[in-house]
């Protein structure tokens, strides 16, 4: 005798599976982040919470439930982009200047692709201060750039004790706002920007490695 449930035996359709609360949260957050990127890239001045919520197909109250401020939403968007850089860097089987240029090339590609959405109003705290207190944004930058920076430090005979200095200098030199300027205003070819800035940074590392103080 069959033990199949009565509903199945009678041919009645199984009840539809309902989307759980976690799926709703993930979907809504993804929609807000996508809308944030679109508005900040295409028309930064119009990127308000109501405009982003409308673009995402959500109420303003729902948007604020997930992100208490536009700044926090923007930061989350940037962190998602930085995660792409971390994952890319982890796949590279390179060393020396080739590794650094590959990471910088990917960063440049992300900055140009996302445009003004990559420019965040700066914190009053410096980068190393934020890194020391474990700020997520600073930690991801460290994870993305760290191996490539250490490779250049090795080439230039810069001592490991100078790593924090080298990381902070990298963060300042490869700022997304300035990269966009070089691309859109100076109109330098991407390959030239990447090579020129790599050599500039190597010169900085060479300088701090060889400078002595009384």
Quick recap of the structure?
It is built from eleven helices and no strands.
- Ranges where pLDDT stays below 50 over 5 or more residues in a row are none
Gap between N and C termini, in Å? 94 Å
Order of helices and strands: HHHHHHHHHHH
Radius of gyration: 23 Å
**Major sheet size, sense and barrel closure:** none
| Proportion of residues in extended strands | under 5%
CATH architectural type of the largest domain: Orthogonal Bundle
| Helical coverage, percent range | 55-70%
- Contiguous helical run count: 11
The dominant shape is: elongated
CATH topology of the largest domain: Tetracycline Repressor, domain 2
List how many beta strands DSSP finds.
0
> Structural class, please?
mainly alpha
Describe what you observe in this structure.
By secondary structure, this protein is mainly α. The protein folds into two domains: 49 residues, Orthogonal Bundle (Arc Repressor Mutant, subunit A), CATH 1.10.10; 141 residues, Tetracycline Repressor, domain 2. It has eleven helices and no strands. It is elongated and about 60 Å long. The chain starts with 5 loop residues before the first helix and ends with a helix.
How are the elements arranged and paired?
Elements: H1 6-9, H2 21-42, H3 49-56, H4 60-66, H5 70-91, H6 96-114, H7 127-132, H8 136-155, H9 163-173, H10 176-184, H11 190-210
Helix pairs in contact: 2-3, 2-5, 3-4, 5-6, 5-8, 6-8, 6-11, 8-9, 9-11
